Amino acid sequence: MYKIHEQPESDPATGLPIAVMLLSVAAIAIYLVVGAEILSDKGGQGTVYLPKLEAESSS
């Protein structure tokens, strides 16, 4: 099973935590850039159509 008298790891690997951190930062940056592009869409402005008014007849 486990040996309690063994020394803890003296040189732990840091590759995985750094990779997870960098991927998280990249994902957040991509999310913010895509969101900014969607919100700043200048060409997609809506068009407002007013109702046609009929001329009043003076009978």
Description:
The protein has 59 residues and is an all-alpha fold. Helix content is 42%, strand content 0%. The chain has one helix spanning 15-39. The radius of gyration is 32 Å and the shape is rod-shaped. It starts with 14 loop residues before the first helix and ends in a 20-residue tail after the last helix.
List the helices and strands and how they pair.
Layout: H1 15-39
Which characteristics define this entry?
59 residues, mainly alpha, 1 helix
Tally the helices: what do you get? 1
Contiguous low-pLDDT stretches (5 residues minimum) are none
Terminal residue distance:
104 Å
Largest sheet data: none
Write a brief structural summary.
The chain is mainly alpha-helical and 59 residues long. The protein has one helix at 15-39. It is 42% helix and 0% strand.
